[in-house]
Amino acid sequence: MLNHNPAWRYLVVILVLLVGTLYALPNLYPEDPAIQVSATRGGEVQQDSLVLLQQRFAEDQIALKDITLQDGQLLARFFNTEDQLRARDLVSRTLGNNYVTALNMAPTTPAWLMAIGASPMNLGLDLRGGVHFLMAIDMQAAIDKQLDDLAQIFRTDLREARIRFGNIQSDTDSGTVLVQLRNADDLAAARRLISQDRDLDVSNGPVEFSLQVRMSDAKIAEIRDYALQQNITIIRNRVNEIGVAEPLVQRQGERIIVQLPGVQDTARAKEILGATATLEFRLVDDSVDLNDALAGRVPPSAQLYYDRDGRPVVLQRRIMLTGDRITGASSSFDEYGRPQVNISLDAQGGNMFSQATRDAIGRGMATVFIEYKPTDQIGPDGDPVLEKIEEVINVATIQARLGRSFRITGINNPGEAHNLALQLRAGALLAPIQIIEERTIGPSLGQENIELGQTAIMLGLAAVLVFMVLYYKAFGLVANAALVANLVLIVGIMSMIPGATLTLPGMAGIVLTVGMAVDANVLIFERIREELRDGRSVQQAIHHGYDRALSTIADANVTTLIAALILFGVGTGPIKGFAVTLMIGIITSMFTAIVGTRVLVNMIWGGRRLQKLPI
């Protein structure tokens, strides 16, 4: 029988519409303006802080919708953005610098929808609001680190070449490494060995039998560029670790722009992205008396540090291992219930650590935590000068030769262990970074953009609906039902895809899809009219109209889909957002226009003896 719907077609259409509608529903529930408070360095917000804030909100007549404390973080919801902004300033004044306070939008999706994994679409920075960071990189620190590495390389190479040397010291002020030799023969041999590297300029040093090694300008430029690219990669890894959808991380000169739209944990994002911590592992120098060290009598091969309790520790300058060799890190608890970080190294790092600890069994090894914090001083580039803070987390006795896996203890709390593991897992920064500019795009501006975009979609939809009804009569109503279903499916699919983000250009793609979605129905309906004019029966006209228009519809949509794929592949940011909604709209419109309308047409007019059609 012509124009009869098989059972599978009903099942497919019902299932697709049901799933699409369920996952589109969360977008009907507006988000609450909120602030999120978390403690710095992995700490937790306590119950007494919650009670204090409730009192302060009441005193300042800030209406609270809800306030909760979960997993050591406080989330306060408000009725409007004005109260949200007032509350942020109040919390910052009340709790001080030991807490990070950030604006947020808290979802109100019902629990039954969240149970099936349904959540609202991720909205871009231009729709939802969010945080824009501008980060500066301390390039001088990257160059200084390279000088320290060169000094360590020279010690190893000269030792392996059996060339006797005295002190090898990097001078960050002059950007050189000073190598002191024992005699003229050793000086000549060392010059030949070091000069093999064309990126190094070797000259006579200021003292007898010494060499002064300086990196070439090309090498310094390479270090700066590599540090920038590596830091961008690490920041992307950190953003991925904290689960931010569709972030923007890009280069701007020698600075980095980070945009975090639609984040659920802005306080933690700010803390993790702004962190510049890394680790170094050094042997304890037992040959130096602590009293001499405190009096300033420290040999060139050693350095005085302090642990977290203020106790002095003398460590060797030679670094056994740095954080850039770490490939994996996780936080857990030791056998006594104390927080620890489990470390995994790459193959080269494992070999280096194995060689470094082979002859150090029974000696103390210190884990040095290094962090950079901005000061009140301004550097020549206009950015705040960073202060390098070094402290010893723990000192452990090496019981056996260590390899690619070991653990760090002596950490204050589980939150700090978790954050340290995250930073190490994401990668060690080659140069310290700091957030020099932070802009928050308020949700009110984003809401205005959403309303304007929705108005454009609704106006376009209304125009198409009216035209289809006036021109195709009852069949126009069928096309309109498919068009509405198409919009629901686009929203549902965008909500289902993790990482898909709706932006203003994306809304433009939806508007374009609204206009394009009826093209397939126009082709089908015109084909049906043509068949009727050629004398076909009603049922034959419907059947041939759908079958013979299919190839034309497929050709038109496939070519548009290819163009959208190219836009997505080569485009950036806004262009990608436009391409995503366009691709989804093309696929869903083909389904609703071909399969969906055919089901409705067959249900209403199929299999019946009719003399004419309302088309």
TrEMBL record:
A GO biological process of this protein is:
intracellular protein transmembrane transport
Listed A to Z, the keywords are: Cell membrane, Membrane, Protein transport, Translocation, Transmembrane, Transmembrane helix, Transport
GO CC annotations?
Answer: plasma membrane
Q: Name one GO molecular function term.
A: protein-transporting ATPase activity
Instruction: Write down the membrane topology.
Output: Multi-pass membrane protein
Report the residue ranges that make up the Protein export membrane protein SecD/SecF C-terminal domain in this protein.
433-594
Spans traversing the lipid bilayer: 452-472, 479-500, 506-528, 549-571, 577-601
UniProt entry tagged with the keyword Membrane: yes
Q: Which residues form the SecD export protein N-terminal TM domain?
A: 2-103
Q: Name one Pfam family in it.
A: Sec_GG
Q: Where is the Protein translocase subunit SecDF P1 domain?
A: 228-286
Places the protein is found: Cell membrane
SecDF P1 head subdomain domain residues: 303-431
Q: Does the keyword Cell cycle apply?
A: no
Quaternary state and partners of this protein? Forms a complex with SecF. Part of the essential Sec protein translocation apparatus which comprises SecA, SecYEG and auxiliary proteins SecDF-YajC and YidC.
This chain's function reads: Part of the Sec protein translocase complex. Interacts with the SecYEG preprotein conducting channel. SecDF uses the proton motive force (PMF) to complete protein translocation after the ATP-dependent function of SecA.
Q: Which family does it belong to?
A: Belongs to the SecD/SecF family. SecD subfamily.
Q: What is this protein called?
A: Protein translocase subunit SecD
UniProt source species: Alkalimonas amylolytica
